[in-house]
Amino acid sequence: DTGVSQDPRHKITKRGQNVTFRCDPISEHNRLYWYRQTLGQGPEFLTYFQNEAQLEKSRLLSDRFSAERPKGSFSTLEIQRTEQGDSAMYLCASSLAADSTVTDTQYFGPGTRLTVL
Amino acid sequence: EDKVVQSPLSLVVHEGDTVTLNCSYEVTNFRSLLWYKQEKKAPTFLFMLTSSGIEKKSGRLSSILDKKELFSILNITATQTGDSAVYLCAVVRDDKIIFGKGTRLHILP
Questions:
Q1: Which band of pLDDT confidence, cut at 50, 70 and 90, is reported for residue B4?
Q2: Domain segments of chain B: what residues?
Q3: Is B56:B95 a contact under the CB 8 Å cutoff?
Q4: CB-CB contact of A43 with B43 (8 Å)
Q5: Which of A41, A48, A104 sits opposite B32 (nearest CB)?
Q6: Is B33 exposed, middle or buried (0-12, 13-18, 19+ CB in 10 A)?
Q7: Superfamily classification of domain B3-108
Q8: Which of A3, A5, A18, B44 is the most buried (most CB within 10 A)?
Q9: What 3-state class would DSSP assign to B96?
Q10: Secondary structure class of A71 (helix, strand, coil)
Q11: Got the DSSP string for A30-65?
Q12: Which residues of chain A does B44 touch, with a Cβ-Cβ cutoff of 8 Å?
């Protein structure tokens, strides 16, 4: 399967614990996005990378959230001191941007469902 | 503030019916509009629309964009139970995508 993959698919944690999610994009894609989706809502943009550079962060991304893409391939999203409000589906997507032309279609991974007790 | 509004929020029809889903937007620096289908997993891509008045078709699904009136519609003809899903409209601005809340479509057999 050469699509976007995410790990783990499900994560249950206690409030106050740290969690880390991983996303592996489609191999030739240089852009990687993180979204959060709660029940009944569309995905909300969190942050995105072009190669290893983090180019934009949403104001939704509090100081407890950090994302990295150290080698421009896979990315990790860490949530420190989790709160019950962090419970959501965390989606990763990737796309291809070549020069100044952006291929806008983003391909999504299966998501990581986080439950904070 | 940028926004993408979908209507209706939910819709129940019988198999074989035709449905029209609506998406209106107010987004600065519009680049394109995307439609996704989401079942019990991540969204899957359906269409990308960048030009007004040009219909995109894929089987029983079609979509069109009106950049003057700032809306798009997604049509599904001869609906089947497998079409039951949440249909998401998203607008790309600069390098960010803004999603609507989706229309939950349920097809009764």
A1: very high
A2: 3-108
A3: no
A4: yes
A5: A104
A6: buried
A7: Immunoglobulins (2.60.40.10)
A8: A5
A9: strand
A10: coil
A11: -EEEEEEE-TTS--EEEEEEETTEEEEE-TT--TTE
A12: 108
Length, in residues, of chain B: 109
Are A32 and A48 in contact by the 8 Å Cβ rule? The answer is yes
For B48, the token pair is: 């990308």
In one-letter notation, the amino acid at residue A15 is: R
Per-residue pLDDT of B89-102, as tens digits, reads 999 887 678 899 99
Among A24, A27, A38, smallest CA distance to A115 is for A38
What CA–CA distance (Å, rounded) separates A106 from A85?
A: 26
Distance from CA of A18 to the nearest CA of B (A): 24
The neighbour count for residue A115, using CB atoms within 10 Å, is: 13
CA quadruple A44, B41, B59, B21: dihedral positive or negative? negative
Tokens representing residue A45 in the block: 């943009």
- Decide if A42 and B99 are in contact by the 8 Å CB cutoff: yes
Digit-by-digit pLDDT tens for chain A (117 residues) are 579 999 999 999 999 999 999 999 999 898 999 999 998 888 998 998 989 988 888 877 889 999 999 988 999 999 999 999 999 999 999 988 765 445 567 889 999 999 999
Q: Which two tokens stand for residue A62?
A: 């509090």
Peptide bond into A25 cis (omega under 30): no
Q: In whole angstroms, give the CA distance from residue B43 to residue A7.
A: 17
Window 82-101 of A: residues touching B by CB (8 A cutoff) are 91, 97
Helix (H, G, I), strand (E, B) or coil at A86: helix
